[in-house]
Specification:
The chain is an alpha+beta fold. Helix content is 34%, strand content 21%. It folds into 2 domains: 230 residues, DD-peptidase/beta-lactamase superfamily (Beta-lactamase); 130 residues, D-tyrosyl-trna(Tyr) Deacylase, Chain: A. Strand 7 and strand 8 form a beta hairpin. The chain is elongated, with a radius of gyration of 26 Å. The N terminus and C terminus are likely disordered.
Length: 450
């Protein structure tokens, strides 16, 4: 029996499958992105591998009632255990946040931070306050602060006589407290007061990539609760964040909870994210239950099937933008982050999840004989290292059964080659809009004497 994971896809599939050429193309696309789900008999070989996996977990003291699995190749469900049961999904929640973020803002969206002043620039001194109006950028880190300091220096600002005023949704270094974010930015702008962390991050930059800024703030940090309280000011600089795709890649590689929660809140909150994700993936709402956008806490529950369906929805969306899920999630053998030191088969695109008694792994595994295997594994148990090891062994067994594939299939080859870390601190995302006034001194012309 076939279930349609996403509404409207049958008509798309039928309308394209009219000639042998388009049929072959459609079958390839169907294999790469599971639009339909065959809920008939599972694959016998895969079922045997899964039974051995579950039996092995049970022998190590892990109850099978806490282990959820969904394995799918194209429209065929190869094997499932508690596949439609919502389980504590930890950071697999970020798959939902990723899907809704793209639906809300798109792949190219950049968050804007406005830098303005209440005074004028005279002889290297900004005679007034420096105002930072945040627009929700969740990836404003040290390197961005260094680059902003250099932009201000190039504008002729060496000192701010007034205060550093924070307004709106401004976070720095994933610090949600605006006062602390202000203190971090004040430090970033002036290399003479850098502490150990700022100095370390600067030392990791390529030599000469960013100059050391020296913009001194004479006043204190002030936080305004709403932009409505902002005084009259002159806009100096528009700072643009990295594009959404690169923010999401950073979020997923390092499983950054602050980025994920920030995006979820701006997208309407946890319940809105759950509802939108379920609708976009064509999954019953009861299979995605969220209380936050990051995955912290066992209250966030997602079924293994729902995770795979969200991946499929992401892949379909990204294909329309000439991108793949490898542009948003860590690639085994390429990226580090939470998959560093794992033994996941090379070129699998995955997302991890971890709580005190939860270890989860989901994504897509490329194989020679079965094509792309979409999988979701959610384990409960206290020995997290053992659970991770058994997840890796399971994926290795599947790869051995169906063969590794080289080169990496186009469907999961990243299209954005540049690493996000190399783009942080790029000065071309600081757009100077301030036009200094030119003072014209009048010259008195002597009146001839008669």
């Amino acid at each position: 029996m076939l279930d349609f994971v996403t509404s409207g896809l049958v008509s798309v599939w039928l309308s394209t499958a009219k000639t042998p050429e388009t049929l072959a193309s459609t079958v390839t696309t169907l294999q790469n992105t599971p639009w339909l789900v065959d809920t008939g008999d599972s694959d016998v070989t895969t079922q045997s591998i899964m039974r051995q996996y579950l039996k092995g977990l049970e022998s190590k003291g892990f109850a099978t009632t806490g282990q959820g699995i969904w394995l799918q190749a194209g429209p065929a469900v190869l094997s499932t255990h508690l596949g439609t049961t919502p389980l504590p999904a930890a950071s697999l929640t970020k798959v939902a946040t990723t899907l809704v973020a793209l639906d809300t803002w798109g792949t190219d969206h950049r968050f804007e931070t406005l830098i303005s002043t209440t005074g004028q620039i005279k002889q290297g001194v900004l005679l007034g306050d420096l105002i930072i109006q945040g627009g929700g950028d969740p990836l404003f880190v040290w390197e961005e602060g260094f680059a902003l300091g250099n932009t201000l220096t190039q504008m002729g600002i060496r000192k701010v006589a007034g205060n550093l005023v924070i307004v709106g949704n401004f976070q720095m270094n994933f610090e949600v407290d605006p006062n602390k974010s202000g203190e971090l930015l004040k430090q970033a702008l002036n290399s003479e007061i850098w502490e150990e962390d700022a100095a370390y991050h600067y030392s990791q930059l390529p030599p000469g990539a960013i100059a050391k800024p020296t913009v001194k703030i004479a006043g204190s940090i002030q936080v305004l609760p709403t932009p409505a309280l902002m005084p009259a000011s002159t806009l100096l600089v528009r700072h643009y964040s990295l594009p959404m795709t690169q923010i999401l890649k950073q979020m997923n590689v390092y499983s950054n909870n602050v980025i994920s929660e920030t995006l979820a809140v701006m997208a309407g909150g946890a319940q809105a994210v759950a509802q939108k994700a379920a609708a976009l993936a064509g999954i019953p709402q009861t299979e995605i239950l969220l209380v936050n956008g990051s995955g912290l806490g066992v209250e966030n529950r997602i079924s293994p099937r729902a995770v795979c369906a969200m991946y499929a929805a992401l892949q379909r969306y990204l294909e329309s933008k000439s991108l793949t899920i490898a542009d948003l999630f860590p690639i085994s053998g390429v990226d580090l982050g939470t998959i560093d030191y794992r033994n996941i088969p090379t070129n699998a695109v995955v997302k991890t999840g971890t709580l005190n008694d939860v270890s989860a792994l989901a994504g897509v595994l490329p194989t020679r004989d079965r094509g792309l295997i979409w999988f979701s594994i959610i384990n409960r148990g206290s020995d997290l290292e053992e659970l991770r090891q058994q997840q890796d062994v399971l994926l290795q067994q599947l790869t051995k059964q169906w063969g590794a594939v080289k080169p990496t299939p186009t469907a999961i080859t990243p299209k954005i080659p540049v690493q996000t870390a190399m783009l942080l601190g790029a000065s071309n995302r600081n757009i100077v809009v301030y036009k200094p006034t030119v003072e014209v001194q009048s010259t008195q012309i002597p009146i001839p004497q008669n």
